[in-house]
Amino acid sequence: MPPAIPLTRTTQPKSKPRDDQLGFGEIFTDHMFVMDGSADQGWHDPRIVPYGPLSLDPSTAVLHYGQAVFEGIKAYRSVQDTIVLFRADKSAERLNRSAQRLCMPQIEEDVFVSALKSLIAVDRDWVPRAAGTSLYIRPTMIAADPYLGVRPSQTYTFFVILSPVGAYYAEGFNPVKILVEDRYVRSVKGGMGEAKTGGNYAASLLAGEEAHRQGYSQVLWLDGLERRYIEEVGSMNIAFMIDDRLVTPALNGNILAGITRDTVLQLATDWGIPVVERSITIDEVLTAAGNGHLQEVFGTGTAAVISPVSELFYKGHTITINDGRVGRVAQRLFDEISGIQRGLKPDPHGWLMEVEG
Ligand SMILES: *Cc1c(COP(=O)(O)O)cnc(C)c1O
Questions:
Q1: Ligand 1 centre and the CA of 56: distance in Å?
Q2: Cβ of residue 218 lying under 6 Å from some atom of ligand 1
């Protein structure tokens, strides 16, 4: 057991929102976890303090050169009224892989997990109850040197904030329309597409805005060299049901290794659905749609879990998928994963970790 983390309680607790008023990432709980890191001291001074602004010198490295990585995890209130984290160990691993790519320090998995658990225990009353709601957790590491020279920072800040979030599909699944992006690219081989870092999101905003103007909710990225190979949606990985097989782009260094993606591949395998991780071109998807072999398309990510796609738009052509209806596999995956997260279904792979206290 790591030593208890010093806690300064807020003197001004906020009023909590109703479960049916929750959106995404707008409301934050009463406390946050903060820890400092430096080359000579390692990570030190872990603490839980009242939620509030960080004080940063205007020259702080992260503000100028974007040396920052983050995670996105959820905690759920189960039907047994326990609070559980979903696959937090995977998230710790991935934060460290992202950090390595950006020359940032590693955080030991038990330090990461106990930061999350201790903070959630303090703010446990903020974990909403209604079906589909959850507590979104945002661990973030930033470069803290007050220095404008370009080099990896020598000091870092790691913090964790919590946000109660609403049911993504309060009124049932809402399939999304996606534009296949053929001008802008999100990342190229050798870049940092595999790291969960704000820079990848900054690179994606302009394409997203143009897609919104045309009535699409997100863009599907193609590879940066040939603009042929399908990569991901930018906050979700993508999967296709073609001829009763689940096909998804292989982890090629450009796309994020989604934890929901991994969860989906495991469940499909458990169910005897053939899973194929390989390169897949947009032309292959168009052809499969044209000859009736494309059965379903869906995104996978922590926020929505499964996001069925009803329509893809590519170079002037619209492909409607499964007559715009939610597919059988997407529905089954969503029901299974949300069932495990709420304690309604067994957890044979040990994906849940209970928050005590
Ligand atoms: C976080 C993220 C995903 C989804 O990953 P999950 O672990 O399933 O939430 C996909 N793509 C990008 C770029 C991401 O940042």
A1: 28
A2: no
Its domain, for residue 249, covers 176-341
Same domain? 211 vs 143: no
User: 311-350: per-residue pLDDT in tens?
Assistant: 999 999 999 999 999 999 999 999 999 999 999 999 999 9
Task: Give Cα 184 distance to the centre of its chain.
Answer: 22
Residue for token pair 């020359």: 103
Number of domains in the chain: 2
On the question of pLDDT at 1 being above 70, the answer is: no
- Residue pair 186/158 in contact (Cβ under 8 Å)? The answer is no
Domain containing residue 151: CATH number: 3.30.470.10
Do 159 and 214 lie in one domain? The reply is no
Instruction: Tell me, yes or no, whether 85 lies in a domain.
Output: yes
pTM, two decimal places: 0.97
| One domain for residues 47 and 118 | yes
Cα 71 to middle of ligand 1, angstroms: 9
Count of other CB atoms within 10 angstroms of residue 63: 15
CB distance 219 to 235 below 8 Å: no
Does residue 2 register a pLDDT over 90?
Answer: no
CA gap 76, 86 in Å, rounded: 8
- Determine whether the shortest distance from the Cβ of 194 to ligand 1 is under 6 A: no
Ligand 1 nearest atom to the CA of residue 196, by list position: 15
